[in-house]
Write a structure and sequence with these properties.
278 residues; alpha/beta; 5-stranded mixed β-sheet; elongated
C-alpha cells in the first residue's frame, strides 16, 4: 500500500476480507492445537521456535557471535540461486528488467519477497528453507516477465523436481541417526515414556519418535542426563555415545547405538539411546 500509492489496486486486494479469511483458516488448526496442547502450542511453537529463534541461534543453526552473524547476513540472497534453481539463473535478468520500470503488481510482489528475505536475514537462527514463503511471489514475478522458450522444458523441470521430492527423501532418511535409532528401539517404546535429548535436537527426532511416544523431547544439558534417567517412570534419552559411556546404569536399562550424518550441520554424529522401561 505504501509503495503502490494506487488505491484501486489496494481495494482490489480486499485486505479486510482477506485478513479475516486468513485468520479463519489459521484458527481451524490453531485453536484445536492450543486446546490439545493446553497452551503449549503458543508458548513453545511461538515463544521458543519463533521468538526464540529470532534472537538466538538454536540447535547450532546460526551464529552466536556478532561477527559470524554479520558474515551470515547475505546467506539467503546467495542461497536462493540454489534453492530456486533452475529458475534462479534468470534472477539477475529479472532484476535488471524491473529496475527501470515496474507496475503496481510488480511492486506488491517485490515488497512481499523483500519482507520475507529481510526478516529472515535479521533472524539469528538460519536454515535453508526459511525463505520458502517468498517463493510463490518470486515465481509469479518471474512468470509475469519471462516465458520459457519451451513449455515442454518447464513441464520437464516440474516433473523432475516432483520425482526428486518423491524418490530422494526415503534414501536420504537412512542417513538420519534418529531414523536408525527409532527402527532399533520402536518395539520397546510406550506412549507414556518421557523423552529427553542431549546435544542433538533435530526435527527428525521429533518426527520419528512421536509416532510412538506422546511427550515431546526435552532438551537437557549433559550434567542433567543421569538425574533425568534416575527419575521414576519409563523414559529414554538420546545422547552422544561418548557421554553415554560415562554413565553407570543398571543392567535392566537397554542401550541402542548408531552412527550417521547430521545433514543440516554437515558433520557425522555418533548417538546412543538409553531406555528404562519402568
Amino acid at each position: 500500500m505504501f509503495f503502490a500509492r494506487d488505491w484501486k489496486v489496494v481495494r482490489d486486494f480486499k485486505l479486510g476480507r482477506g485478513s479475516l479469511l486468513t485468520l479463519a483458516i489459521v484458527a481451524l488448526w490453531g485453536v484445536p492445537a492450543l486446546v490439545r496442547t493446553h497452551g503449549e502450542f503458543w508458548s513453545i511453537g511461538i515463544g521458543r521456535h519463533v521468538i526464540g529463534r529470532s534472537f538466538g541461534a538454536m540447535e547450532g543453526h546460526g551464529a552466536n557471535s556478532f561477527g559470524i552473524y554479520l558474515l551470515l547476513l547475505p546467506f539467503y540472497f546467495l542461497w536462493v540461486f540454489v534453492s530456486f534453481f533452475p529458475w534462479s539463473i534468470k534472477l539477475p535478468w529479472l532484476t535488471k528488467t524491473l529496475w527501470p520500470r515496474r507496475d503496481a503488481i510488480d511492486k506488491y510482489l517485490v515488497t512481499g519477497i523483500a519482507i520475507v528475505f529481510i526478516i529472515f536475514t535479521l533472524v539469528k537462527t538460519k536454515l535453508p528453507h526459511y525463505t520458502l514463503p517468498a517463493f510463490p511471489l518470486l515465481a509469479i514475478l518471474l512468470a509475469r516477465h519471462w516465458r520459457p522458450e519451451s513449455r515442454v522444458f518447464a513441464a520437464v523441470i516440474a516433473i523432475m523436481w516432483l520425482g526428486i521430492a518423491l524418490i530422494i527423501p526415503p534414501f536420504v532418511a537412512r542417513l538420519f541417526p534418529a531414523c536408525a535409532l527409532f527402527h532399533q528401539v520402536r518395539h520397546d517404546l510406550r506412549p507414556n515414556m518421557e523423552f529427553a535429548a542431549v546435544d542433538y535436537m533435530e526435527p527428525s527426532l521429533v518426527w520419528y519418535f512421536r509416532s510412538r511416544v506422546k511427550p515431546f523431547p526435552t532438551p537437557i544439558k549433559r550434567k542433567e542426563a543421569t538425574d533425568f534417567m534416575l527419575k521414576s517412570g519409563p523414559r529414554f534419552i538420546v545422547m552422544p555415545t561418548t557421554l553415554a559411556a560415562t554413565i553407570n546404569h543398571p543392567q535392566d536399562w537397554k542401550t541402542f547405538s548408531t552412527r550417521g550424518f547430521n545433514i543440516v550441520k554437515g558433520k557425522p554424529v555418533d548417538l546412543t539411546l538409553l531406555l528404562k522401561e519402568r
